[in-house]
């Protein structure tokens, strides 16, 4: 058996390539939308991808299930569980609790594990060439290393009303029915790691075991005692802000993300051509540098989407459903531009026209920045904390309003368009992303230099 974990550090998302070496067949679970890595794995191992599936209708990224199936001819397998309101709308074979998928000598058994979402499936894998019992459990957003999938995203991102309570109870029941009953040796491979907003305390290790989790995880004693009420209260407490773009991901993953097919290499824009495209509003420059570099000078009206996490920050800073501008990326070369584009398509930011390698010749401005020691004497209309609500609750600058950087572009009605807004996050990275997006949306924004950490240091 071949088992490969493909992990996206940007979105803290894991997909899995599972192959039978004897038969040369493979299946992919929860693929991302840029599929070259899966195709290369198959080719390098002399395998054919025959099946592609996913654990649930994702909210944090666009699924590559249809993309990979279109490129390989693989059979699409998606959940038919969850009831009428949670059915996929694109073509594919529906699978249900107890259904089995054969990949050469391998067998995957679908296990309905609702709670994070109603239709959620996990997959138990048996390597028939070695054993007659499952030893691997692909849990999607059901069980993470040290945590569980949050049950409140349907409320936060999909327009649900108080579905979190029923979802939390479903998670509890799923643990009782489908997890703690498994042998301790079964290895657990989740869909996310630390940094994902799909839970509140995800571990960084790539996998765990049933025995470890049911012994040491925070939820273990609740399940052991049958304390559903205590479990529900702790699971729902302290969940981070859901990113606003999650709602779009949920809708598009249910209907089926557009198939990109073979994408032509991005072309380089000359400075004059880029300047003209930016001037007429048909394009927007994406400054991929650090906040410190952007504060020295950047292109007027540009977005700041740092190259460290381009998918995450693109999802925060640009809404392709409301903005039809094409993006021009600042990149070192064509290879770097292509890498950035591969990341942005993971959150449905597809309309990238090309790249520039320098800001020379483009109209530049210096963003407004305020030193923290000058905050008390400064004149402004709103002090805006763009960190998560959990960070805000742990400590914030007096008088600040909290609105997460991951949501601010979708909640501009809460902000004044006539006054000056001073923004901050923890260190300045998220703040620069949010501030650039707000400036492009027409707001007068000044960033607090060094953000909360610099302000807090003044008190020492």
Automatic annotation (TrEMBL):
Residues 279-366, 382-460 form the Rhodanese domain. One of its GO terms (molecular function) is hydrolase activity. SUPFAM superfamilies: Metallo-hydrolase/oxidoreductase (SSF56281), Rhodanese/Cell cycle control phosphatase (SSF52821). The keyword Ribosomal protein does not apply. InterPro entries: Metallo-B-lactamas, Mito_Persulfide_Diox, POD-like_MBL-fold, Rhodanese-like_dom, Rhodanese-like_dom_sf, RibonucZ/Hydroxyglut_hydro, Thiosulphate_STrfase_CS. The keyword Hydrolase applies. One of its GO terms (biological process) is glutathione metabolic process. Keywords: Hydrolase, Metal-binding. This is Hydroxyacylglutathione hydrolase. It comes from Bowdeniella nasicola.
């Amino acid at each position: 058996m071949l088992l490969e974990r493909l992990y996206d550090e940007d979105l803290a998302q894991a997909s899995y390539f599972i192959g039978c070496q004897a038969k040369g067949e493979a299946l992919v679970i929860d693929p991302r939308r840029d599929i070259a890595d899966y195709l290369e794995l198959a080719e390098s191992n002399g395998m054919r991808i025959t099946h592609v599936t996913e654990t649930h209708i994702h909210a944090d990224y666009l699924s590559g299930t249809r993309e990979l199936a279109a490129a390989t001819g693989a059979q699409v397998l998606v959940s038919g569980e969850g009831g009428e309101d949670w059915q996929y709308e694109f073509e594919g074979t529906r699978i249900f609790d107890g259904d089995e998928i054969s990949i050469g000598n391998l067998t995957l058994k679908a296990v309905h594990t609702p709670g994070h979402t109603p239709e959620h499936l996990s997959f138990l894998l048996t390597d028939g060439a070695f054993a007659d019992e499952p030893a691997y459990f692909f849990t999607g957003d059901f069980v993470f290393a040290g945590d569980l999938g949050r049950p409140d995203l349907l409320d936060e991102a999909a327009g649900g009303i108080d579905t979190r309570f029923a979802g939390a109870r479903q998670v509890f029941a799923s643990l009782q029915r489908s997890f703690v009953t498994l042998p301790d040796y079964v290895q657990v491979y989740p869909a996310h790691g630390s940094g994902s907003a799909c839970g509140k305390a995800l571990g960084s290790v790539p996998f765990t075991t049933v025995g470890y989790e049911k012994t040491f995880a925070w939820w273990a004693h609740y399940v052991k005692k049958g304390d559903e009420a205590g479990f529900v209260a702790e699971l729902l407490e302290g969940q981070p802000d859901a990113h606003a773009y999650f709602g779009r991901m949920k809708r598009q993953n249910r209907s089926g993300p557009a198939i990109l097919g073979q994408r032509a290499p991005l072309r380089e824009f000359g400075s004059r051509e880029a300047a003209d495209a930016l001037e007429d509003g048909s394009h927007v420059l994406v400054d991929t540098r650090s906040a410190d570099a952007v504060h020295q000078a950047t292109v007027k009206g540009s977005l700041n989407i740092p190259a460290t996490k381009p998918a995450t920050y693109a999802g925060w800073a640009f809404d392709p459903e409301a903005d039809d501008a094409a993006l021009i990326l600042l990149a070192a070369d064509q290879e770097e531009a292509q890498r950035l584009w591969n990341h942005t398509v993971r959150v449905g930011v597809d309309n990238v026209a090309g790249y520039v390698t320098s800001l020379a010749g483009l109209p530049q401005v210096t963003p407004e920045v305020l030193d923290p020691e000058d905050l008390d004497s400064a004149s402004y209309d709103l002090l805006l904390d763009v960190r998560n609500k959990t960070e805000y609750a742990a400590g914030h600058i007096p008088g600040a309003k909290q609105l997460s950087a991951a949501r601010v572009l979708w909640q501009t009605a809460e902000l004044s368009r006539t006054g000056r807004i001073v923004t901050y996050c923890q260190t300045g990275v998220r703040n620069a992303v949010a501030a650039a997006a707000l400036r492009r949306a027409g707001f007068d924004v000044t960033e607090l230099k060094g953000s909360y950490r610099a302000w807090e240091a003044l008190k020492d």
